[in-house]
Amino acid sequence: MEVIKVMIADDHPVVREGLSAMLSREEDIRVVGEAENGVQAVSKARELQPDIVLMDLRMPELDGVEAMRQIGAHDPNIKFIVLTTYDNDEYIFRGIEAGARAYLLKDAPRQELFKAIRGVYKGESLIQPAVAGKVLDRFAQLSRQTQVPEALSERELEVIKLMARGSANKEIAAELFISESTVKSHIASIFQKLGVGDRTEAVTQALQKGLIEL
């Protein structure tokens, strides 16, 4: 039977003792060490070479995210499970970006923790359902942000250049030999493509994106 070597990094002695006592009852899990701050976690991980580090994110001297980065840079074979009380988006994503293969809240059932340890040891990933929804929401948000905006047409570029000069719809229509209703249609399309709500925002965005020059 393979024994999974686990190190616990948490600044609360009661938490470390409780986790250690709980994990030690499992035949296939052995707690090889504990760390009370991020600096100690980095040092002990190098010394003890655990298979898995249970990492709290908020610790003195060096936070859990930076500790994971440093440990992972030295030994990429060590895997991390974030075990924390913090479930806000920023903590979740900083932990995942630093290399966490599982993210659990400290109130997770013990069987879920055991499952995470065994799964991560085998190369799997696990995110507690309470946290998973936030992960999916964040990825959807990032996807929307990284979508390439639809390019303005040649005619729309002509319209927004005239808008930048302060031309009214009637003046733009006369300049381009089109109707005012057509100008309004072009402006509505420009607003939609640039994700803005008025002429000033549209011109500002166009200038920032280098679509026009004053």
Q: What does this protein look like?
A:
It is a single chain. 55% of the residues lie in helices and 14% in strands. The mean pLDDT is 86. Helix 4 (89-97) links the parallel strand 4 (79-84) and strand 5. It has ten helices and six strands. The chain has helices at 13-24, 38-48, 64-74, 89-97, 110-121, 129-146, 154-164, 169-176, 180-194, 199-208; strands at 4-9, 29-35, 52-55, 79-84, 100-105, 126-127. Strands 2-1-3-4-5-6 form a six-stranded parallel beta sheet, sandwiched between helices. It has two domains: 4-144, Rossmann fold, CATH 3.40.50.2300; 154-208, Winged helix-like DNA-binding domain superfamily/Winged helix DNA-binding domain (Arc Repressor Mutant, subunit A), CATH 1.10.10.10. With 214 residues, it is α/β, with parallel strands linked by helices.
Spans where pLDDT lies below 50 across 5 or more residues:
none
Number of strands: 6
CATH topology of the largest domain: Rossmann fold
Give the class-level CATH name of the largest domain.
Alpha Beta
CATH architecture descriptor of the largest domain = 3-Layer(aba) Sandwich
Rg, rounded, reads 27 Å
Order of helices and strands: EHEHEHEHEHEHHHHH
Approximate shape: rod-shaped
The figure for the number of domains is 2
CATH homologous superfamily heading of the largest domain: Response regulator
Outline the biggest β-sheet: 6 strands, parallel
What is the averaged pLDDT score? 86
Count of discrete alpha- or pi-helical segments spanning 4 or more residues:
10
Helix content: 40-55%
Category by helix and strand content = alpha/beta
For the record, give the distance between the C-alpha atoms at the N and C termini, rounded to a whole number. Answer: 73 Å
Strand content: 5-15%
- Strands ordered across the widest β-sheet: 2-1-3-4-5-6
